[in-house]
Specification:
Blueprint lengths: L7 H28 L4 H7 L34 H15 L1 H6 L7 H7 L2 H8 L10 E4 L15 E5 L2 E12 L6 E7 L9 E7 L5 E6 L10 E12 L6 H7 L2 H38 L6 H34 L4 H26 L9 H9 L9 H14 L5
Parallel strand pairs: 1-4
Antiparallel strand pairs: 2-3, 3-7, 4-5, 6-7
Bound molecules: flavin-adenine dinucleotide (FAD).
The site of flavin-adenine dinucleotide (FAD) has 20 residues, from strand 1, strand 3 and helix 12.
Length: about 400
């Protein structure tokens, strides 16, 4: 049986994350959204969180416990990293989701380095986060012609002496411009499909690697989303994740996809944090404006809406926790991770829209967080795999599964 009672450590993470969300993130949220940036002082102040809540950042090679989102599961050593990640992510996103995405640390680049990297690579690339200051990793898979169709990436890599030369363009990369290093997926030959994929860690300053435009977005405006350009970028061969050997037995594409099994529940939890914030705002509004002063029929409709949305929110959280628990247990969780992501993104979008409805014109004011949450939430059904793609992943798995009772 699955037991979701929180361990003392999980309880502490939840409480501390909530405290930070309430006292630091909420008060600055609207202003940072309007300025399309989060002040470095705030990020430095938060850098003590550095993955601790959301990524389980420190692998064994750099003195940590080896736990972490994307770490190769080990059934003898039960991990809590994925459950801690979803608990921390929900609370911090309740405060401000852009800040959560901008927290210093390896970000979405962490899981592939953990799961595909050699011990030497893990040591080299994670040690940067031990240094003072703001340090970031990033994950670059998406291209102008390959978003959902990740198997169709066109960024090329070819070996030249002790280097790989990378040529192509990546787009919509979270923290791409500020990253110390980026995990970049490229292909030796597009005709080989998934078997041709390779993953590299490309470090800032690599000759031939530059940052293009920074996107202006509808939501999550304070989170940096960048275009990356590779013009025969010279990447040392020792930055090929896992080394040549890794790609003989496996496919680079599998590595890229496995990353999502650990990050999708966390991204789902971020969406839930925003939705919970919107739901609470709607509840408080109903309480303050209707409960005592309006005729019952109108209030009853709104109360029923709140009840229904709360049910959806709780159901989405349970899917999310199940997927995270399975990852911690070392159980294959692709289907469950996609279920959590697909359901949470949909539910969260709906709850944020209902919150705007319930607040009426008040909810459309740009001075109101509800308006911001409504803009922020849309992307959750797009990044880390769109809703349609999650449903394809789920349906493929359930059609392949043996019959069960
Ligand atoms: C804020 C933000 C941050 C991001 N951060 C990163 C990042 O850090 N790293 C990174 O690599 N990428 C990142 N992305 C990119 C994101 O992962 C892609 O946008 C996403 O995968 C969708 O790809 P696309 O935008 O090209 O849409 P498309 O793939 O072109 O899809 C367009 C529409 O077609 C549908 N569709 C596509 N194929 C199918 C199909 N086979 N069946 C049914 N429907 C289909 C989609 O569901 C969607 O509705 C980010 C995006 C945003 C907006």
């Amino acid at each position: 049986m699955i037991d979701f009672s929180l361990s003392p450590q999980q309880q502490i993470v939840r409480e501390v994350a909530h405290q930070i969300a309430q006292t630091v993130l909420r008060p600055g949220s609207l202003q940072w959204d309007q300025q399309h940036r989060i002040p470095d002082e705030v990020l430095l102040q938060l850098s003590m969180l550095r993955g601790g809540f959301t990524q389980g950042e420190v692998p064994e090679e750099v003195g940590g416990e080896g736990e972490g989102v994307g770490a190769v599961p080990d059934r003898r050593h039960r991990s809590q990293a994925n459950r801690i990640a979803v608990l921390g992510a929900e609370e911090l996103a309740w405060g401000d989701a852009s800040v959560l995405l901008s927290l210093p640390g390896p970000g979405l680049g962490g899981p592939p380095v953990r799961s595909m990297g050699t011990p030497e690579q893990r040591r080299r690339f994670f040690s940067v986060f031990q240094q003072p200051g703001l340090h970031y990793g990033a994950y670059a898979l998406t291209e102008p012609g390959a978003g959902s169709d990740v198997a169709g990436i066109q960024t090329r890599c070819r070996k030249q002496g002790r280097y790989y030369l990378l040529s192509g363009r990546k787009c919509y990369i979270t923290n791409g411009a500020r990253a110390d290093w980026v995990v970049v997926f490229a292909t030796v030959d597009p005709a080989l499909g998934r078997a041709g994929h390779r993953a590299f860690v490309v470090e800032r300053g690599t000759p031939g690697f530059s940052v293009g435009k920074i996107e202006r977005k509808m939501g999550l405006r304070a989170s940096e989303t960048a275009e990356l350009i590779f013009e025969e970028a010279r990447v040392p061969e020792e930055n090929l994740l896992g080394g040549e050997e890794y790609y003989r037995g496996k496919e680079g594409f599998v590595g890229a996809m496995q990353t999502f099994d650990s990050t999708r529940p966390m991204v789902a939890a971020v969406g839930l944090g925003i939705a919970r914030a919107a739901w609470e705002a709607a509840r408080d509004f109903v309480r303050d404006h209707y409960l005592l002063s309006r005729p019952l029929p109108r209030y009853a409709q709104l109360a029923a809406q709140l009840a229904q949305d709360r049910r959806l929110l709780d159901a989405a959280r349970l899917l999310c926790w199940r997927a995270a628990w399975m990852a911690d247990e070392g159980l294959p969780n692709s289907k469950e991770a996609s279920m959590a992501k697909a359901y949470a993104a949909r539910v969260a979008l709906r709850i944020c829209a209902h919150a705007v409805d319930i607040l009426g014109a008040h909810g459309l004011q740009t001075s109101q967080l509800v308006e911001k949450w409504y803009r922020d939430i849309k992307v959750f059904d797009i990044f880390e795999g769109t809703g349609q793609i999650q449903r394809i992943v789920i349906s493929r798995r359930i059609l392949r599964e043996p019959p069960s009772f």
